[in-house]
């Protein structure tokens, strides 16, 4: 062979070897790509929550799609599945692919992550296509054929709301949910059952019947949660269960001492609404109990705690049993401590029980501003009259205008003119009906205060500007927003006003407004000798605020206490003499409102030791005649608790 032929032969041989090697590499790379493509297809399907049998070797009695659904049905979430390594077997006709699962199970905690494997091969497939072999380990490593995944949310125990001396006010209690189950009766019977159930538990029958009627055909429409340990509610539950279509459900719910106990303040707990669930960003799920109103809502993050989660490899024939694959412990809620004295709150609510109009009793401890009771009567329809009601305070405001008069140089012994009436720019202001003739004329300011002479206060309007009234309100704790955690108001004294309105302001009318909480704060400030800031939640006392431009002095507070003492010793509240618990000083208040016929708010504020109280009734005869007896009853009950 010539040299040239040898060179050509060598080149051809090298080319053939190179081509063969390329073919092997190409074939191997193609096999891996095809195997990976199948693994990716399985991963994508698993991420969507359902497999397709087309990618699997289907053998008799094995349905991969159905098996995957059975194994994963017990977890509400869907996994994010990605493909890791794909390792070809020596024969390049089989492979093992790693599937990385990531389950987002619990907000605020790391996802449950692990690697599973799936075996792939071309054996027995038409055209040599890659197919996967089904096994439970495709879903989770070590999963046996008789196991499935079961996830469950671990709910925390809700914290209690406690009052002074750790007395429980709202806590987990055994109860019975009663409602109409529309799966047990036809539509007409369901509506009829709703009306009967509403009458048993005290709901508006037509409103509840409408709810039931509009609910879906399989709905359970709850009417009430009845305490098992309350004899009256237990009897209601018994009557409710006898109604066809009503289904009782035993439960444990965070409930107040009674259905009405401090309810506007404490609030209620119920199942999370869609809005709450969405806002929680995964911390709250459907069916979770959350605070819906009041402190239960405002401090839900404290009381609720945080859920946990557990995933079991559960035996299919023994639900609830199996081994734990993933677990996060729940964190129970913490108790919320309030300043409320349970005994005083119950006393206030008992006193207001028979009162039909909106009403309130607020008690504050002057020494530290603790709100000891904030009771709202049933006439308010569930509204927190005690902390949110804004009304003309009437003559209880004479403590404020009285301070402004003291600052203007009118001492308790100074003579003031008390006439039966006074006219300002055509507007006549009368003293209250039945004002004693013996307290008319030129009398000491202390007498005018004790008997609440409107004319004496209004006649000194030129010595006390509207700005002076506002400054006096500042000194006694009004004109600021309270920090109770729950919504509340104290009062508002306008800084300027036209002549007639200014005259009305002198006697707590016009545009002067105050809440029962606000007037209790005024009384507490007088008792303490400085502006008091009321608080409700332990550990969340109000931050210090800028002192009033002209703070209350010890001398001014002493003079105001002396003036209030005269109201009880010689004035309009002599009925408070001898009240159990020690000396009481007070101020009556009647505020007119509305067109003919004119109606009246009844007010009383009082101080007894380290207790400041405001009593309010929206419609009454007068402060002394309407609010006065309620105040005496409350102080009498309070004394019995000491």
Description:
By secondary structure, this protein is α+β, with helices and mostly antiparallel strands. 33% of the residues lie in helices and 24% in strands. It has 19 helices and 25 strands. Strands 6, 7, 8, 9 and 14 form a 5-stranded mixed beta sheet that branches. A 5-stranded antiparallel beta sheet has the order 16-15-25-24-23, sandwiched between helices. A hairpin with a 4-residue loop joins strand 24 (599-607) and strand 25 (612-617). Mean pLDDT is 94; it is low at 4-28.
Task: Summarize, please.
The chain has 642 residues and is α+β, with helices and mostly antiparallel strands. The protein contains 19 helices and 25 strands. Helix 12 (398-407) packs across helix 15 (466-475).
Strand fraction equals 15-25%
Shape: elongated
Task: Please compute the radius of gyration using only Cα atoms.
Answer: 38 Å
Instruction: List how many beta strands DSSP finds.
Output: 25
Instruction: Determine the mean pLDDT.
Output: 94
Number of helices: 19
Straight-line N-to-C gap: 128 Å
Q: Percent range for helical residues?
A: 25-40%
Helix-and-strand structural type: alpha+beta
What ranges have pLDDT less than 50 throughout 5 or more consecutive residues?
4-28
> Main beta sheet: strand number and arrangement?
5 strands, mixed
Question: Helices, strands, pairings?
Answer:
Layout: H1 3-48, H2 64-72, E1 80-88, E2 94-103, E3 112-121, E4 131-133, E5 147-154, E6 161-162, E7 168-181, H3 187-201, H4 205-214, E8 220-227, H5 231-241, E9 246-256, H6 263-266, E10 269-271, H7 274-279, E11 289-291, H8 294-298, H9 300-304, E12 308-315, E13 322-328, E14 336-337, H10 342-352, E15 359-365, E16 370-376, H11 385-388, H12 398-407, E17 415-418, E18 421-424, E19 427-430, E20 441-444, H13 445-451, H14 454-458, H15 466-475, E21 491-492, H16 499-505, E22 513-514, H17 516-528, H18 554-569, E23 585-593, E24 599-607, E25 612-617, H19 623-641
Helix pairs in contact: 3-4, 3-5, 10-19, 12-15, 12-18, 13-18, 17-18
